From TrEMBL:
Tagged with keyword Nucleus: no
Molecular-function annotations in GO: carbohydrate binding; peptide-N4-(N-acetyl-beta-glucosaminyl)asparagine amidase activity
A Pfam family of this chain: Glyco_hydro_92
Organism name: Amniculicola lignicola CBS 123094
Protein's name according to its UniProt entry: Glycoside hydrolase family 92 protein
Length: 796
């Protein structure tokens, strides 16, 4: 997803290229730089987070630019291309108010933003700190449902003629400023407690959600407290001593004023969050942070992260340290979402886990979920169960979901791919595969009323015509955006491919055949005579996916349209049109991940295929900042040229994926860019939905992954490793000492452990080039596409 350019969020924090300095680094944890991707549209959330937890401070609400700080909030999504997500109930500290008069304090959203102090940001997993220009040092850490802040105030406030009398305010709003029906209650006991609620809009979806907080303070005596009102020229009312609230004031927030802190000029703020109630928010905070112990909480968060990261071991001898930062930070970001909201789902009662922020599966199915399956199968299992529970209670699998709401569908019903990928990788504990099968069939067969938020649209045509017509009209079905007919066609076809595969494994023979047939539907939008020119110069390639109408005649979309070369942003959900979502026909013409053999035949055979794929990568047509590009790096494996994939991977890392703050080429989309980099650096990029990992030499001397379920370790070792300079081509491979010819791996290797040795050289070797060495292909067109209709063969 690469939406959103319009909305610039006023944001909560910092500046500058931070690169943790070298000295005593030990584990992967030490290499994580949460700030990568916090500038230039990466939308990464760098604040304190736990793996998959409800809370972190700030959102993608922070940016490494010079924007002012308006507050610190407790829940975020990372890397979204949609609107600003979450960021509910931000708090903000003042050392004093003008003339020591609370009524003059600039509480409003428009008046309070202040600059950050340059070079004061410090970010690592579970911890974030920054100093404001008011000389207040703000630190934050997290537990599962609560955030803990530590504000250190200056002895003398920077504001003239005032003395230290800290004020901490809380605003009843979110990053998108979507709050409604908000309210706040102030308590004399516990000291200065505030609780409250509001309803909010999801950032890339429909409906509303309710959120609740409970804030408590420690470290100074309360002098006064109350509420404020008014977006400008705020009116302030004290409620001290149980004063009655002024009926004319609609509270926009609350504030607590303190005497000079008791120790080190510090005040701690604990904010519990809940989607259930204010009471639950307080209970969450009291349970997880009973003593407001800041350092113990940081340590616990670090420990949780280390445990997640320590399943990977890297031998980085001879490799630039930047690659390690890119790698570990990518793994870290992969683990920020989906978030575990178990116990916090107000929508239905269930014993199943509840995860949220599947944001969005179109972005995450290709690399995030496969990487989680490798590193943290327990969490992936719970996510799969949660997806099925959502199906059970909402009637459909989500394609995107955030803050308890349905999110927007971008293409296919790609939760299908997540489920099938998990199935073939032995994700099974407590998973009801019969229910999964039902959910998959529902996606494939039953059109929902609003297919902009779930399922598929145009199913009538899909079944009758075998493609999504560009002018589709569906008298019986639901409604949705009638765009993206080409990209939806190829994605639906791949979804059906995945259903066919699991169908066979589950013993549904007829369905296997039925969906395998439908998996060839991508072919139906292939216009064999279509040519493509750039600036009037013929590219020399013929045959591209093209719009096709209900009457089976062809339409036209320039094959380069919606690429970086022509109208790149014309095919977004919110830009009104285009038949190829966030990419060009050039790109989508390569998308037949289940049956690459037939596609290669269709495009004129291996040599023409390689030439065309090279052209895609080298002509400027491909944008690596969007997820459909990922697989394109590795398709050379299907023509027996794994060395070309290895070489191609090295043309993008580190040039586009690196350790700088701007080091990702597009929205991170909850870790998609990070997981792409991590998997590519490991040399095991997956073809999601299949039990296939493409082997390319790791960027490190060796890598090991310990499967947390089986306890077995899989190691890939490069022999003749020269730091990745010249020896990047596999000459020969040995799996546990036995010659290994295939250029791909199966998940068994990671479950059962073993050692794969790759002997490297300067030139492409013979390894993996033989017939039958490539990954499998299957479809309705015969083994190598020999049953493709002859009139369909283009590409010359
Ligand atoms: C405090 O500020 C308010 C608003 O600016 C003003 O109306 C009020 O008179 C001030 N109070 C004192 C004691 O100066
Ligand atoms: C601070 O107080 C001094 C002396 O009373 C006065 O001259 C000055 O204007 C005040 N400054 C501000 C910012 O109010
Ligand atoms: C808001 O909270 C106050 C204080 O707890 C309460 O008296 C009031 O009824 C609430 N208002 C609404 C609309 O819920
Ligand atoms: C893992 O999954 C594969 C593919 O579905 C299956 O053949 C194998 O038996 C499974 N292994 C275990 C230990 O469950
Ligand atoms: C492609 O061109 C050939 C030769 O002109 C023609 O016979 C065929 O019908 C065309 N196919 C399509 C789909 O337009
Ligand atoms: C087919 O449908 C398209 C789109 O509605 C229309 O422009 C075209 O004229 C139709 N062609 C025929 C042969 O009916
Ligand atoms: C790092 O990645 C960014 C974003 O893709 C790119 O613009 C930049 O040139 C890269 N920097 C280096 C030093 O490779």
């Amino acid at each position: 997803m690469f939406l959103l350019r319009k909305r610039v969020v006023t944001i909560l924090w910092w500046v500058g290229a931070v690169r943790a300095a070298g000295a005593q680094k030990k584990s992967g944890f030490d290499f994580v730089d949460p700030l990568i991707g916090t500038i230039n549209g990466g939308h990464v959330f760098p604040g304190a987070s736990l793996p998959f937890d409800v809370n972190g401070e700030n959102q993608g609400g922070f940016a490494s630019d010079n924007s002012d700080i308006v507050g610190f909030s407790h829940m975020h999504d990372s890397g979204t291309g949609g609107g600003a997500s979450l960021g509910n109930f931000p708090i903000f500290p003042f050392a004093s108010c003008p003339n020591n008069n609370i009524s003059s304090c600039p509480f409003s959203y428009y008046e309070r933003p202040i600059p950050r102090k340059p070079n004061t940001v410090s970010a690592r997993p579970g911890y974030f700190a920054i100093t404001l220009s008011s000389e207040i040092h703000a630190e934050m850490t997290v537990t599962e449902h609560a955030a803990l802040y530590r504000f250190t105030f200056p002895k003398v406030p920077t504001l003239a003629n005032t003395s230290l009398s800290p004020v901490i305010m809380l605003e009843l709003d979110d990053l998108a400023r979507s709050a409604q029906a908000e309210n706040i209650t102030m308590y004399e006991r516990p000291m200065g407690r505030m609780t409250g609620q509001g309803t909010f809009s999801p950032s890339f979806g429909i409906g509303r959600y309710e959120s609740y907080f409970c804030a408590d303070f420690k470290g100074a005596k309360v002098k006064d407290y109350g509420i404020y009102s008014g977006a400008w020229n705020t009116k302030v009312q004290s409620l001290k001593g149980g004063k009655k609230r002024d009926k004319n004031l609609r509270p926009l927030g609350g504030w607590v004023q303190f005497n000079v802190p008791e120790s080190q000029n510090q005040i701690l703020v604990r904010v519990g969050m809940s989607f259930i109630s204010e009471k639950k928010a307080c209970q969450n905070a009291e349970k997880e942070l009973p003593t407001f112990d800041f350092s113990a909480t940081v340590l616990a968060a670090e420990k949780a992260w280390k445990k997640k990261l320590d399943v990977i071991t890297i031998d980085a001898a001879g490799v630039d340290e930047g690659l390690l930062t890119t790698f570990w930070s990518g793994v870290y970001r992969t683990m920020l979402s989906p978030q575990d909201y178990t116990g916090e789902n107000p929508l239905w009662d269930s014993k199943e886990p509840y995860y949220d922020s599947f944001y969005c599966i179109w972005d995450s199915f290709r690399s995030i979920h496969p990487l989680l399956t490798l590193l943290d199968p327990k969490s992936q299992t719970r996510m799969v169960r949660s997806l099925l529970d959502i199906y059970k209670h909402e009637g459909k699998l989500p394609d995107c979901r955030m803050s308890l709401c349905k999110g927007l569908t971008q293409g296919g019903s790609n939760a299908d791919v997540v489920l099938v990928d998990a199935y073939f990788k032995n994700i099974s504990e407590g998973v009801d595969w019969a229910l999964a099968w039902e959910a998959l069939l529902s996606d494939a067969e039953i059109e929902p009323m609003d297919w902009d938020v779930e399922g598929r649209g145009g199913l009538l045509s899909w079944k009758k015509l075998g493609y999504i017509p560009t002018d589709n009209f569906d008298p019986n079905g639901g409604t949705g955006l009638v765009t993206r007919s080409i990209s939806r066609t190829v994605e639906y076809a791949y979804n059906d491919f995945c259903i066919a595969q699991i169908g066979r494994a589950l013993g549904h023979k007829d369905d296997h055949l039925k969906y395998l047939k439908r998996s060839g539907n991508w072919f139906n939008m292939f216009q064999p005579n279509q040519t493509s020119s750039i600036n009037g110069v013929d590219t020399g390639f013929r045959g591209f996916l093209q719009p096709k109408y209900m009457n089976e005649t062809w339409g036209y979309q320039d094959p380069i349209h919606c690429s970086p070369i022509l109208g790149q942003h014309d095919c977004y959900l919110n830009s009104g049109g285009g038949e190829t979502y966030e990419g060009s026909s050039w790109l989508y013409t390569f998308f037949a991940p289940g049956d690459m053999a037939s596609l290669i035949t269709l495009l004129g055979g291996p040599e023409r295929f390689i030439a065309r794929l090279d052209f895609l990568h080298e002509s400027g047509l491909l944008y690596m900042g969007d997820e459909q590009a990922f697989l394109m790096v590795f398709l050379y494996h299907y023509v027996g040229r794994p060395g070309l994939s290895a070489k191609r991977a090295r043309s993008y890392i580190p040039s586009l994926f690196n350790e700088t703050v701007g080091g990702i080429p597009g929205n991170d989309d909850s870790g998609a860019m990070g997981s792409f980099a991590a998997l590519t650096l490991l040399g095991i990029f997956p073809n999601a939905g299949q039990d296939v990992y493409f082997i390319t030499p790791p960027f490190f001397k060796s890598i090991s992954i310990k499967n947390p379920e089986t306890g077995k370790t899989a190691t890939i070792r490069n022999v003749n490793f020269d730091g990745g300079r010249e020896n990047v081509f596999v000459q020969e491979a040995r799996l546990d000492g036995v010659k290994y010819e295939r250029n791909w791996l199966q998940h068994r290797f990671f479950r059962e452990g073993g050692t794969l040795e790759l002997v490297l050289g300067k030139e492409e070797g013979k390894w993996g080039t033989g017939k039958g060495d490539g990954p499998p292909s299957e479809g309705p067109f015969g083994k190598g596409g020999e049953l493709l209709p002859k009139s369909g063969l283009g590409g010359r």
